[in-house]
Amino acid sequence: QTPQRDGVHGKVACPHFVITVTGNSQIVGNRIIQTGNALAEPISLDTLFALAQSSNQNNLIPAQFLVNGVLTLRNQDILTLSTGSYLVAGIDISGQASLKIDGAVDFFSQGAITINGGAMVNTQAQSGTFLVVSDSSHAVTINGSVQAGLTLYAPRAALMLAGGARIGGYLFAKEVKATGNSLAVQAGVIPTPTQTASGDTPGNQDSDKSNGRKKAGIGDLALGPDPSFAEREIYAFPNPARAGANPTIHVEVGVAEEVKINVYDMAGDLVHEAVLNNAPGVIVRGDAAAQYAYEQAVYSLPTGVYLYTIHARSNGQSIKKVGRLAVVM
């Protein structure tokens, strides 16, 4: 349940349970509900925790941060964990405390996980560098203006997001509930369109679909796309494009249910069309700040002048835009 303009962007998986969305909430990206013969616990927790029990780096955690075996950070505490596996009785981070990750860290919790009070967890590195695994049925609770980048595997627990929590990463839980302007963003990879647009030719496509984009951590993500639906920047680049280059149409409208892009030659013939209904991608170019936008490359255009139309829609609202692009020798 995600009332009050919450959004879940990216991958959320729930074994044998449903994800419900109410009010102005949105789920954009991969929404996975496993049913039928799907395993509620596709990776054995018993195996993972047996390995963590036999070999871990708990000795690297200063004693003052372990209270009855629970990793405890409060009152602006700062702890940096280096590469390794750690096994704790639970996680309790609050009071604007900061947990930093240096390397690849696997964290195994045998009890409740609570992160609140403006805590910062792995906000500078890739979300994939911090794996949090829980074998407990106690809820994983993240609330109160928390910022966190992590990969969570908690197949026996409910995940509760509330109070403006901002999470970047991948979430696997028994149940997911988000309230109070919470936002979960797929981070650590750049989402790419799954559509095949007419006019594209396999030999002429960018092999990695990157269009100059690069991987971004949660620090680059500016806490996710603005969930509001409004026209921002819409343009084609390079414009004009030299023959052989593939101009790209850039559309910033916040989060849309669908973005349609059509390109016409001056005779009025449709030469390219695409429908984008995935999450907006994270665009990072050079030293510029990261942006969330829909982008579509237009392949194999001969020299000439073209008109493109944009039609984006969300919750009964629509944004329409007409622009011009040119391809020159």
Outline the structure in words:
With 329 residues, the protein is mainly beta. Helix content is 3%, strand content 46%. The protein has 1 helix and 25 strands. The chain has one helix at residues 45-54, and strands at residues 7-9, 12-15, 26-28, 31-34, 66-67, 70-73, 78-88, 90-93, 98-109, 113-115, 120-121, 130-134, 140-143, 147-162, 166-178, 183-185, 234-237, 241-242, 248-251, 258-265, 270-276, 281-283, 291-297, 304-314, 317-328. The chain has a 16-stranded mixed beta sheet that branches. A hairpin with a 2-residue loop joins strand 5 (66-67) and strand 6. The radius of gyration is 22 Å and the shape is elongated. The N and C termini lie far apart (54 Å). The model is unreliable at 1-11, 20-31 and 187-223 (pLDDT under 50).
Query: What Rg do the Cα atoms give?
Result: 22 Å
Structural class: mainly beta
Number of DSSP E strands: 25
Give the overall silhouette. Answer: elongated
Low-confidence stretches: 1-11, 20-31, 187-223
The succession of helices and strands, N to C, reads EEEEHEEEEEEEEEEEEEEEEEEEEE
**Could you give the distance between the termini?**
54 Å
Q: What percent of residues adopt helix (DSSP H or I)?
A: under 10%
Please, how many helices?
1
Q: What proportion strand?
A: over 45%
Mean pLDDT: 76
**Main sheet: strands, sense, barrel:** 16 strands, mixed
